[in-house]
Amino acid sequence: MVDLLIARCDVLRRDKAGAYRVERNCDIAIEGNRIAAILPAGQIDVQQSRELLNASNMLAIPGLINTHTHAAMVLFRGLAEDVSIESWFNDYIWPLESNEEPEDIYWGTLLAIAEMIQSGVTTFADHYFFADQIAQAVADSGVRAHLGWAVFGHEGIAKLDETVAFAQRWQGGAGGRINTWLAPHSPYLCDPAFLKATAQRAQAHSIGIHIHCSETPEQVQLSLQRYGVTPPAMLHQAGVLSVPVLLAHGIAVTDDDIAILKDHDVAVAQCPKTYMKLAMGTAPVRAFREAGIPVSIGTDGAVSSNTLDVLEQMRLLALDQKQAAKLSTILTVQEVLEIAFDGGARALRAPELGILEVGKLADVVLLRQDGAHVFPPYDSLAHLVYAFRSGDVDTVICDGRLLMRNRCLLTVDLERVKAEITSRLQRLSQRVVERRIASYPTG
Amino acid sequence: MVDLLIARCDVLRRDKAGAYRVERNCDIAIEGNRIAAILPAGQIDVQQSRELLNASNMLAIPGLINTHTHAAMVLFRGLAEDVSIESWFNDYIWPLESNEEPEDIYWGTLLAIAEMIQSGVTTFADHYFFADQIAQAVADSGVRAHLGWAVFGHEGIAKLDETVAFAQRWQGGAGGRINTWLAPHSPYLCDPAFLKATAQRAQAHSIGIHIHCSETPEQVQLSLQRYGVTPPAMLHQAGVLSVPVLLAHGIAVTDDDIAILKDHDVAVAQCPKTYMKLAMGTAPVRAFREAGIPVSIGTDGAVSSNTLDVLEQMRLLALDQKQAAKLSTILTVQEVLEIAFDGGARALRAPELGILEVGKLADVVLLRQDGAHVFPPYDSLAHLVYAFRSGDVDTVICDGRLLMRNRCLLTVDLERVKAEITSRLQRLSQRVVERRIASYPTG
After folding, report:
1. Interface contact A276, partner B, CB < 8 A
2. What gap in Å lies between CA A269 and CA B327, rounded to an integer?
3. How close, in Å, is residue B204 to chain A by CA atoms?
4. Which 144-203 residues of chain B touch chain A by CB within 8 A?
C-alpha cells in the first residue's frame, strides 16, 4: 500500500554516471518514510494509494540540505548590517547573544524552521546554544536536523561535558530525524587542550565534530603566531580529525591544509552569502573538489546571510567562484547540483539523503514551474541553479510527512511563533557591548 | 475623487536628507496616474475613493526600475551556461538571434514583461531588435519602458536611420509610458564614423543614447590597439557623449574614463549577476559614486543573468562590491536603495519615477511581509536588500493602473504567451554558429 502518491511531476534524478537530469511526468510513491517507486506517470495504481498529491507542472527535487547554520540567530536578523567581521562579532552578535534564554531558542529555531520549510530545506546542521530547545523544535516541526551544542573553550570542560550529554540524549531522536555532533566553536576560541578533550569524547562516544575553521587570513596568521601551525593542522594535532568532521568555511586554507582535510575525510560547508557580505574572501572550492573533499552548502546564520535560503546560496557559490577565478566555465550547473545534493548528504554522512531514488528517505520538495522566470523549459537544471527562487517552493515532504502544501505550513503555527518572538524582541535586541559571551581575537 | 486607495501599508519613503526609511501604516491615494496623497492610515476618506485596496502588512515601494536589459532574450533562457564570454556571443547568442523574426520579439517581450511584473519591475530600459514589437508589447501590457532599437555598425547608416525613425515614431507612446533612445551596440561593434552618425542624429532629434561600453579589460585593449583611446574616450571623440547617455556596464574603465563620464553627465547601469556569471570583473561603483556619476541597476538579458529580477541584482551588487573591495562596510543598505530607486530614475532622466511622493507617477509595488524570512521586522530596509525576494511581490501598479493583484497578472495572458512561444521554440533554438548576426572581436 502506497501512503502518498505524488502524481505527474518532473523529477530531478541522477544517472549512473553521476549526471543530474530531469525525468518528465513521473509518479513518486512513498511508503512510510521511504521512496517506494519512481515510475512514468500512470504506472502506479491510484486505488492502492492512501493519499494522492497532484503535482502536475511541478519539479520534484530532493529536500534541500543546509549543512551549516545557527538557526535561532533569525532572532537578530537585520541587526548587524554593513559592519566589519570584528565589529560583527564583538559589537553585535556576542553582545546580543548574551540576552538569550533557553525558551527564546525554541521559538527562534521554530521561526528558522518555518523559513527553511518555505524555502525547501528539509535537513539542517545547526551549531548553536541551548540545543535541547533546538531538538524539541525539530521534533515538533517534523524536519530533519544534525545538531551540535556550540561551546567555547573558555566555558570549560564541565560545559563541554554538558554538550556531550546533549549529544547522547538526542542521538537518533525525533523518530530518527535527529543526529547529534559535538560543536566546539573554532580553533580561535577553543585552545588545543579543550579541543583535545573534545576529540577524546567524540571518539569515546562515536560522535562527529562540527566546527568553524580558517574563516579569514587573519585567523590563520593568529594561529601561526599562537600555535605555530594553521588552524586545520592544529585541529589535526588535537586529534579532532580522527572523528567525522564537518568543517565550516575553510576560506583561508593552504595547500597543506587541503591535504590534511583530504587525508582525514573532512567535509567542508560553504556559505558564500556570508563570505561576500562580510568580505571574507572566496574558498578554494575547486581545489577541495579536485582533492576529493566533499563540499556542501550552508546558509550560516541569518545575521550574516539574512536568509536561510539554500537555493540562493547555491547560486551565489557558482557566481562568487566564477568571479573570483575570472573563469566562467568553472562550477558548472552539474557541479553546483552535485555540491548541493550529493555534497550535502556526504557532509552529514547521511547517504539516504540528497537523492530521489527507491529506498532512500522520502524528503521531497515540489517547485512550481508556472512562473514566467522559469520559461521556456529548455534546461530545468540551469533554471534550478540560476532562475528558481524559494518563492517557487509549493510542497515540502520530510520523512514521508507533508510539512507544507500549496505554500501553507502544516506543522508550524507561524503566527504563534511570531507572537512569542515579538514579546521577546525588546529584551533580545538590547545591545550592551561589554556584556558579550565571547571576544573575537584580533592578534 | 481618489481613483485608487492603497490602505494600511508600510511605505518606503525618502527624507529631506536623502535617507530611506519606512513609514508604518499609511494610506496612499492615487488620482489618475499620479500619487495624490500619502498619509497616516485612516485620514483619507474611503467614501471618496473609487477603488480600495487593502494592503495590511504589505510594504509599498516604488516600482523597480530595470535600466538595462534585452527583454526578449528570455526566448533563449538556459541555452548558454558555463561558457566564456567570447563563446557566449559567438557560439550561442548571435547564432540564436539569427533565428528571430519580428513577431517572436512581441511574444518574447511579453514573457519578459510578465516576469518583470511578477518581480515588481514597472519600468525597463530595453536595448534590442524589432523595437516596434517591443513597443507594442509595452503598450499592451501597461508597463513603462525606455526603448532603443539595437544596431551594429556593420548594418550601415540606412539601418541606423530606421532605428531613428522608430525612436521618433514611439517617443511618448503608449500614453506617455514609452520613451525612446538610440541604441548603437558598443564601441567594439560600431566604428567611429557610425557612432558619429548616431550622435549627429541623436542631437538633431533630441534623443538619448543607450550603449554598452568597457565590459572587459580585453575590450579596452582592443580599443587602444584599434583607435589609440579607451572606449569612453572614443565615444567622446565621436560626439556620443554630447547627448544624454545611459552606459551599460563600464567594468573596465580607467580613472580618466570616469572623469570623461562625469563631465558629460553619463549614467552607468550595473548588472552584477551577468558580470559574476561570465566572470567579467567588478565595476568601480564606489569611484563612480564618488565622482557623482549616477549608478543604477539592470538585469541584462536572461541568457546571461537567467532572470529579470532587480531585487536579486540589488543584492548581488552589494555582495560583489563588498567581496571585490575586501571591505564589508561599503555599499551600505542605504546606498543600495539609492542606486536602485534614485539611481534608476536618474539613469533614465525620469525624475518622476523611483520615489513615492505626492505628484510623482503612481508606480507602486506591494511586497508581502508575512514570510518567515522577513521576520522580525527590526530593519525593513536591510530586509529589502538582503531578505525579500521577488516571490514576495503581491501587487503591482504602473501609471496608476493595477497590473498584478494577489500575484495574479491582470494585463498579460501568460498561458497564451507561453503557448505562442512554445510553437516557436524549435525554430528559435536552432544553433548554426556560422549564421550569426555579429562576431565578437578578440583582437
Report:
1. yes
2. 23
3. 39
4. none
Please identify every stretch of chain A with a pLDDT value under 50, giving residue numbers as ranges: none
Under DSSP, is residue B84 helix (H, G, I), strand (E, B) or coil? Answer: coil
Copy the grid coordinates of residue A47.
Answer: 486505488
- The answer to whether B78 contacts A316, with C-beta atoms less than 8 Å apart, is no
What does the angle CA B91 – CA B95 – CA B99 come to, to the nearest 5 degrees?
155
Task: Please give the ipTM for the structure prediction.
Answer: 0.97
- Chain A residues 399-418 within an 8 A CB cutoff of chain B: 414, 418
pLDDT digits (tens, 9 = 90+) for A139-182: 999 999 999 999 999 999 999 999 999 999 999 999 999 999 99
Q: Which of B77, B79, B418 to probe by mutation at the A interface, max A CB count within 10 Å?
A: B77
Note the pLDDT of residue A443: 65
> Which amino acid, one-letter code, is at A191?
D
Nearest Cα residue to A177 out of A220, A225, A123, A130: A123
Give B433's pLDDT tier (boundaries 50, 70, 90).
confident
CB of A75 less than 8 A from some CB of B? yes
Cis bond upstream, residue B376 (ω within 30): yes
What distance in Å separates residue A234's CA from the closest CA in chain B? 27
The phi and psi torsions of A196 (rounded to 5 degrees) equal -65, -45
Rounded to 5 degrees, what are φ and ψ at A152?
A: -100, 155
Sketch the domain layout of chain A as residue ranges: 4-62+360-414, 64-347
> CB of B372 within 8 Å of any CB in chain A?
yes
Given this chain, do its domains B4-62+360-414 and B64-347 carry the same CATH topology? no
Classify domain B64-347 at the CATH superfamily level: Metal-dependent hydrolases (3.20.20.140)
Considering CB atoms only, which of B323, B375, B389 is closest to A391? B389
pLDDT of residue A442: 80
Has this prediction a pTM greater than 0.95? yes
Distance, CA of B31 to chain centre: 26
Whether chain A has a CB inside 8 Å of the CB on B376: the answer is yes
The CATH number given to A4-62+360-414 is 2.30.40.10
